[in-house]
Design a protein that fits this description.
By secondary structure, this protein is an alpha+beta fold. The chain has one helix and nine strands. A five-stranded antiparallel β-sheet has the order 5-6-2-1-9, with no helix packed on it. Residues 29-34 have low confidence and may be disordered.
């Protein structure tokens, strides 16, 4: 009887220890997820002047749930297709939107990504995304989890028109 009681006590103690470690792991995961930027739908694209390619991609992100502001200078954004890739850094393409309920910090940030060198001379070349072509936008903050968006350019784009993707 004594041996069974001691065994039950040890088993319960191990169960409580495991439960506590699981709670700590879940709490840590929730904190890390809270520091991730979230893409706000829809992602928009603008067709080129001839309607055959994407000229701009516009992505809006929401600030992390923990209330910290986004440091756009620390983001590396990569746009890629199966054939090519373009990387963007710096704050020139980012724009804050909205105030954060008395904190004065923006709630959303919008990034307009040019794909043609004619629109942004700092680009090394044009990134061509044609009609019905799949592309990826990856946003990598230096101190948080990256966020990747996969979309397909619409078929039959009208010249200069905007489309939700």
């Amino acid at each position: 009887m004594v041996v069974a009681s001691v065994f039950a006590y040890v088993a319960l103690g191990a169960g409580f220890f495991t439960t506590q470690k699981t709670e700590q792991t879940i709490y840590s995961a929730v904190q890390q997820v809270g520091s991730v930027v979230q893409v706000v739908e829809p992602v928009m694209i603008q067709a080129s002047a001839d309607g055959q390619h994407v000229q701009y991609i516009v992505v809006m992100v929401k600030v992390p749930q923990d209330g910290t502001d986004i440091d756009a200078e620390r983001f590396v954004v990569t746009v890629s297709t199966a054939e090519s890739m373009q990387t963007y850094t710096g704050t020139a393409r980012w724009r804050p939107i909205g105030g954060g309920g008395g904190t004065g910090m923006p709630v959303f940030w919008q990034m307009q990504i040019p794909l043609f060198q004619a629109d942004d001379p700092t680009l090394p070349g044009d990134l061509l995304i044609g009609q019905n072509q799949r592309f990826f936008v990856e946003m990598k903050p230096l101190d948080a989890v990256p966020c990747t968006v996969e979309r397909t350019a619409p078929a039959g784009m009208s010249p200069g028109s905007w489309h939700e993707v």
